[in-house]
Write a structure and sequence with these properties.
The chain is an alpha/beta fold. The protein has 3 domains: 62 residues, no CATH class; 130 residues, Rossmann fold (3-Layer(aba) Sandwich), CATH 3.40.50; 54 residues, Winged helix-like DNA-binding domain superfamily/Winged helix DNA-binding domain (Arc Repressor Mutant, subunit A, Orthogonal Bundle). The chain contains 13 helices and 12 strands. The longest helix is centred in the N-terminal third of the chain and has 15 residues.
């Protein structure tokens, strides 16, 4: 079938993506498929034509499951969409891809800087950053990827012309205009409904080699994405946070159960994701002034060496730890890597 007929079939109602794919594969024409399911064609082709015209006006491409441009990673998951709507440029199939997800109510002092540090490093290594364009961790991940001229994919739960709020819509335009893309399984004109959000998370994980959860409560969309990752056989990672923070409870539960690997350095995911260059090797780690003697030191001793307060030293050590240059040992002792 042609793309117009596959879109028309998807408009028939009460057909799952699997149903649409099956009928599009086993029947030569839309009329044959509709006859097989006992539906009259009505004006489905006219609706499909209008949809394609609307897509063209918006700069959106409709890509069917049998199109060579359809992402190969998606073909390997259950319930992959029969049609995806794409604005922008799909990344090369051989590029490493990391899904970065987390709570909408992320912390400014921890979740935000950790996301920025990790995404910066992965972007510099040529990774595609995939997320859901929601407030919090998602938008920070997209923004950071753009800041470092990376490719990022935003998977949304509405038609591409129905993105809300305004900030997300503006960010989507920037992503599509800067070598990234926005993807939806919903046709243009479709508003987001509550069931669409958890469903789109299977696409976020499906497009990625690894899923990293940064700040998540015990319930939420990030954990739904994590569950999809496990079902799809994707590598799952979680970032530990302060034990007093409810926004890290979901991450701690994933790590404690063994479902997710603990990630404290950007290079912790390198066994699961293809990087452009092996710049994470410890032999390339830059020396840390004050910690270049190869010994582990208590944080108060490090603060004295750096001539700063203990709190300032801890903040700087956190940055260095997330950057892979410092390792924390029991008893708040720190040692330089390399």
């Amino acid at each position: 079938m042609q793309i117009k007929e596959i879109i028309a079939l998807s408009f028939a109602g009460r057909l799952t993506s699997a149903d649409v794919r099956e009928h599009a594969t086993t029947h030569a024409t839309l009329d044959d498929a509709l006859e097989a399911i006992g539906r009259h064609p009505m004006d489905l082709l006219v609706q499909a034509e209008h949809q394609l015209d609307r897509c063209a006006a918006l700069g959106v491409e409709a890509i069917a499951f049998d199109d060579v441009r359809y992402p190969r990673r998606l073909l390997n998951i259950e319930r992959y969409p029969a049609v995806i709507y794409v604005k922008g440029a799909l990344p090369p199939e051989n590029a490493g891809s990391v899904a970065v997800v987390g709570t909408r109510a992320c912390t400014v002092h921890y979740g935000k800087p950790v996301t920025e540090m990790f995404v910066e490093e992965w972007t510099k290594r040529g990774c595609v950053i995939t997320s859901g364009l929601a407030n919090g961790i998602d938008m920070i991940a997209h923004e950071t990827s753009l800041r470092f001229n990376g490719r990022t994919i935003a998977v949304i739960a509405s038609g591409i012309d129905r993105i809300t709020p305004i900030a997300a819509n503006m960010l989507a335009d920037r992503i599509a205009s800067n070598n990234g893309c926005v993807i939806s399984e919903h046709a243009c004109g479709v508003a987001a409904l509550p069931p669409y959000f958890p469903a789109r998370n299977r696409i976020i994980s499906g497009l990625s080699d690894a899923v990293v959860v940064i700040e998540s409560k015990t319930k939420g969309g990030a954990l739904i994405t994590a569950n999809f990752a496990l079902k799809q056989g994707k590598s799952l990672f979680a970032v530990p946070g302060p034990i007093t923070s409810s926004r890290s409870e979901g991450c701690h539960a994933l790590i404690r159960s063994g479902a997710a690997q603990c990630v404290v350095n950007a290079y912790d995911i390198q066994s699961s994701v293809q990087f452009d260059s092996d710049t994470f090797a410890s032999s390339h780690v830059e020396a840390v002034p004050g910690l270049d003697d190869g010994e582990a030191h208590l944080v108060d001793a490090i603060a004295q060496r750096w001539k700063c307060t203990v709190q300032e030293a801890l903040s700087r050590l956190l940055t260095l730890e997330m950057d892979g240059r410092v390792q924390q040992l029991p008893g708040q002792r720190f040692v330089a890597r390399g």
